[in-house]
Amino acid sequence: MADVEVPKSLSGLLNGIAQKMFFNNDEMTEELLKSELFPELPQEEFKALHEKMRGLLKSISTADMDHAQLEAFLTAQSKKQGGGGVSAEQAAALSRFWKSQRVRVRERLLAQSRWEPCLRGLSWRVDLQAAGRQRDTEHSGPVALMELELSRTGQASHKDSEFVCVEFNEAKVNEVLKKLSDIQESIDRIVHRT
């Protein structure tokens, strides 16, 4: 393989690995990448290169490295002794790839980490329950009824939503409000730190 083709092949390999890892493209197999990008490289050498690039890409994306972090990481990787380090060509290819694809990969990782289903709507009301028997005070008094509308990410129609109804007595309402207050305090602390 000519020297000019090596950076293109490394770039293609990184793009192929990203397609498989982050975008769930099952057509992007290790065999396809080898046959298209590194046909003359022995299978074991390609497998080692593929795994190394996959591991590095996973580390870089998991840490969501900025440019300075990436350069420090790649410098440390290039100084590793033995076969575990990266060459200057590999470091350059990783740097170019991450510079151009960081936003797309980050957005995809965030989308994959969102819980399904998501909350689309919330409605509530307070009802006053009367006791069935005169001495049944445990089941009398105000209750809050809350209806949660849940949908899958990307569903535009309300007809595909699921609805969950929850009933709270006064003690449970106070417990939920306390927990929500704790959440708000945590968010405020994080926002004021940045």
Describe it:
- The mean pLDDT is about 85.
- The chain has a 3-stranded antiparallel beta sheet.
- The radius of gyration is 27 Å and the shape is elongated.
- It is of the alpha+beta class and about 190 residues long.
- The chain has helices at about 5-25, 30-35, 45-65, 65-80, 90-115, 170-194, and strands at about 120-130, 140-150, 160-170.
- Helix 1 packs antiparallel against helix 2 (about 30-35) and helix 1 (about 5-25) crosses helix 3.
- The longest helix is centred in the middle third of the chain and has 26 residues, at about 90-115.
- The two termini are about 50 Å apart.
- It contains 6 helices and 3 strands; from the N terminus they run H-H-H-H-H-E-E-E-H.
Concise synopsis of the structure shown:
This protein is of the alpha+beta class.
Instruction: Please identify the structural class as seen in this structure.
Output: alpha+beta
The geometry reads as: elongated
What value does the Rg take, in angstroms?
Answer: 27 Å
Provide a count of the helices: 6
How far is the first residue's CA from the last residue's CA?
Answer: 49 Å
